[in-house]
Specification:
alpha/beta; 11 helices; about 290 residues; 7-stranded mixed β-sheet
């Protein structure tokens, strides 16, 4: 049996929404500001300035993909942020009817528009892409999802494979929009929720081919960040290994990822929500995929 190690998400990392000070500085009505490119860009640049960060990150929640797939997403408020209001997928037929992502509608379109707006303002921009298990959790009751997975695993394999291909399209669209950094997050796809059996299946059927193809698409242009849950999954499966990289000076995790463009392809030792944490020892752990 594979000895998997889980990563404990830092406190508050599953929260969306902003402080009163950020909302005041944004100066736009919420939740409308979440829904159009200029608003998303203003939020991202304001957050970067308030945090003293190295890059603007968009979007601000894990619901953009699910919304595009037909999910019932409540935009919430500036303090709470968007979240799933109620599951809309009821059975395997709904899952198998999953449509392609439509990059010409909704917040998905506006998120890519925000990237272009920010780049036009000479900002450095990162995009957060949400993984399949978290997105499915926003579309279907997780209990029903696991029931289908147990009884008809081929259904989930088919759906996750479709999502993998759609997320690769999202990466391509992000590159075309001009992003400087890509972060992949799938907190519901962690060991603590899936358990060892399904965590291994998800790693072999989704994470491995997804990351391999994503890096081919990116072509060394920028650094891709993996949620540490996924990074540890790949290492335990013997698909990747850790390496240590020395930085020219102490800097934040995000700044290190920007500095290493063209030299390093993959990282995943810290939660993206801790991207402004300073690496005081001048070292960052990077990931190297292993060839079969």
């Amino acid at each position: 049996m594979i000895a998997f190690t889980d990563f404990k998400c830092p406190e508050g990392s599953d929260n969306s929404g902003f402080t009163e000070e950020v909302v005041r500085l944004v100066g736009l009505p919420f939740p409308e500001a979440y829904t159009y490119g200029e608003g998303i860009a203003k939020i991202a640049s304001t957050v970067r300035e308030a945090e003293g960060g190295a890059l603007c990150m968009v979007p601000f929640c894990h619901t953009v993909e699910a919304e595009n797939f037909g999910g019932n997403i409540k935009l919430g408020t500036a303090k709470i942020g968007p979240r799933c209001e109620a599951p809309v997928y009821k059975d395997e037929e709904d899952l198998l009817g999953l449509a392609d992502l439509d990059f010409e509608k909704g917040r998905l379109k506006e998120t890519l528009a925000a990237v272009k707006i920010l780049k036009g303002s000479r900002e450095t921009v990162g995009i957060q892409i949400c993984g399949p298990m978290t997105t499915l959790n926003n579309l279907m009751d997780v209990g029903k999802l696991f029931k289908i997975w147990r009884k008809k695993p081929e259904v989930i394999e088919t759906v996750v494979e479709k999502m993998r291909l759609q997320l690769l399209r999202y990466i391509q669209k992000s590159l075309e929009a001009g992003v400087d950094f890509i972060a992949f997050e799938d907190p519901v796809g962690g060991l603590n929720i899936l358990g060892p059996k399904y965590f291994e299946l998800q790693g072999r059927h989704f994470s491995k081919p997804f990351v391999e193809e994503a890096l081919r698409i990116i072509g060394g242009e920028l650094v891709m960040h993996l949620c540490p849950k996924t990074a540890l999954q790949l290492v335990a499966l013997g698909i990747a290994e850790w390496e240590s990289c020395t930085l020219p000076k102490p800097m934040s995790y995000a700044q290190a990822c920007l500095e290493l463009r063209g030299k390093v392809n993959l990282v995943g030792s810290a939660c993206i929500h801790n991207r402004n944490h300073i690496l005081k020892d001048g070292q960052i752990k990077t990931l190297k995929l292993l060839t079969p």
